[in-house]
Amino acid sequence: MTTVHAQPASFHIPLKMRAAQCTSYGENVEQILSVPQDGTIDTPRLGIDKPPAAFKNEMLIKVQAVALAPGDARVMSGKTREFQGPPSFPYVPGGDACGIVMALPEETKKGDQCKFRVGDRVAARFMNKPMGMLGEYALCNTAVCDVVPKNVSSEDAAALVSSAMVAVIIADRIREGDRVLIYGAGGGVGSHMCQMVRLNGASYVAGVGRDPQRLMEKPISCDYAVDYTKTDPFSVKEWCDEPFDVIIDLAGGAWPALLQHRSSGRPSIVKSAKSKGRYLTTTPDNPIYEIHSVWALLKTFLFPSLRRAITSRIGFSRAALPKYSYVLALPETSEAVTRTLALASENKLVACIDPQGPFEFTDDGVRRAFELQASKHAKGKVVITVSSEK
Fold first, then answer.
1. 273 CB-near residues (< 8 Å, 6+ apart)
2. What residues does 121 pair with on adjacent strands?
3. Closest Cα to residue 140, out of 35, 38, 64?
4. pLDDT at residue 373, as a whole number
5. For residue 218, what are the CA distances in angstroms to 164, 257, 340?
6. Which of 196, 213, 284, 313 has the largest count of CB atoms under 10 Å?
7. Is pTM beyond 0.90 here?
8. Is 137 helix (H, G, I), strand (E, B) or coil?
9. What's the mean per-residue pLDDT of the chain?
10. SS3 at position 131
11. pLDDT for res 4
C-alpha cells in the first residue's frame, strides 16, 4: 500500500463528495449524465482506490476546474469503448483539471521524493484515458502535471494543461519566417496554436474556422481567416500566389481536399516537400470515428498515415505534395506542461475559453458543457468550475 503524507488539520478530506456521474454509453446527456447534489459519491482514497484511467504515481487533489476535450465526449459515446471505456458504470468523466493537492505518496515509483507538497495548486492532464476528474476530489498522475503560477487562474490552467500543451509541442516544428495555415484554428488546440506559431517565428498566420472575425482578433490574432462553410481555402488567390510553408490540420479532412485540388491542376496553396513544405496533423480525416478492434485502429490511424508519410517523401509526389507527418503530442512527462504554464504566466500565451463558460458544476451546467464539446463548434476550451474555494 502507498504511504501517504500526514495532512494539516485545515485540509479535511470528507468521505463523500459531489461528482458528475455517467450511467451508460450514449450521446443524450439528459439521460446519462448528472451531478447529484447530495454528496453521496465516495471520495477516492489515495493508496486504496485505483484511478479509473488505470495509471500509477497518483496523488489526491481538491478539484477547482475541469476542461473538456474531444476524448471526453468520445469516451461517453462508447465509440471507442474497447480501448477507452471506463472499468464500470457509473463513472466520473473528465480528464484535464486544476486543483489543490490534498494527499500525496511518500515516494514515487523510482524511490524519489515527490516534487509536490500538500497545498500546491496544480494543473494535471489526463493519463491513458480521460476520466475521473469531474468531481470535488480526484486522483491525478504526478508525472503529467505541475504547479500553477500564482497569476494563472484555475480555469485557465485547466484549459491550458492539455490542448495548449499540444500547441506548444507542435509549434516547435515552425521555422523562422514560415507562412502557416491552421485548420480548426478556433478550437481548443487551434486557438492556442495560432498564438504559438507566431511566438515561434511564423511571418504569416492564417486560420480556417467558422468565425473568421474572432480568429483575427486578440489573442488569436491571425493575419487572415476564412469560414470554410463559405470559402474553399484552396481557392484563395493570395494563398495560391504565395503558398504556405506549413499546413497544420487540427480538424481533419484537409489532406483529401489537398489531393483533390492537386488533381484539378490548379496551383497549390502549400509548398511541396521538395521545397520544404510540411503538412502536420493530429487527427484522422474524419475526427468523429468509431473503433472497436485493433484492425479498425490500424486502418484509421496507422495505415493511412504511414502511406502518406512515405509517398510524400519519395518519388514524384515529393515535388507535388508537402511532407506529411502525423504528430503525437501527449508526452508522459511534465516538461511540456511546465513550459505551457510558464508561457501563460509570462503573458506570452493566453488561455482561450469558450465565452459560454466557465459552466457551473450542476446538472444543467455539466450537460451544456458536454453538448457544446460534442458539437465540435466550441470557441476555444470548454471549462467547468467545480469549486472556487482555495
1. 312, 313, 317, 318, 319, 321, 322, 323
2. 100
3. 64
4. 96
5. 16, 29, 19
6. 196
7. yes
8. strand
9. 92
10. strand
11. 46
> Looking at residue 112, what is its pLDDT?
57
Q: Which helix (H) or strand (E) holds 303?
A: helix 303-311
* Residue 46 Cα distances to 3, 111, 337, 386, angstroms: 9, 17, 23, 20
Residue holding cell 487562474? 153
Among residues 70, 119, 112, the alpha carbon closest in space to that of 95 is found at 70
Q: Which residues of 7-32 are buried (b: 16+ CB within 10 A; e: fewer)?
A: eeeeeeeeeebbbbbbeeeeeebeeb
- The 8-class DSSP code of residue 379 comes to S
- pLDDT higher than 80, residue 37: yes
Per the listing, cell 482561450 goes with 352
Q: How confident is the model at residue 245 (pLDDT cuts 50, 70, 90)?
A: very high
Which residue has cell 504528430? Answer: 327
What is the pairing mode between strands 96-103 and 58-68? antiparallel
Cβ-based neighbour number of residue 6 at 10 Å: 8
Contacts of residue 149, Cβ cutoff 8 Å, sequence gap at least 6: 341, 342, 344, 345
Q: Which pLDDT tens digit goes with each residue over 275-321?
A: 999 999 999 999 889 999 999 999 999 999 999 999 999 988 888 99
Residue 56 has pLDDT above 80, yes or no: yes
Quickly tell me which residue has 469503448 as its cell: 81
Paired residues of 68 in beta bridges? 382
DSSP helix/strand/coil, 98: strand
Helix or strand or coil: residue 362? coil
pLDDT of residue 107: 56
- Is-cis flag, bond preceding 90, omega within 30? yes
Displacement of CA 215 from its chain's centroid (Å): 19
To which residue does cell 488539520 refer? 9
pLDDT attached to residue 266:
84
pLDDT bracket for residue 389 (50, 70, 90): low
- Cell numbers standing for residue 101: 493537492
- 60 neighbors 130 (Cβ within 8 angstroms): no
Pairing of β 137-141 and β 58-68 = antiparallel
Report whether pLDDT(9) > 50: no
Largest CA distance in the chain: 72
Contact yes or no for 268/243 (Cβ under 8 A):
yes
Q: 162: Cβ–Cβ under 8 A, 6 or more apart, which residues?
A: 67, 69, 95, 96, 125, 126, 330
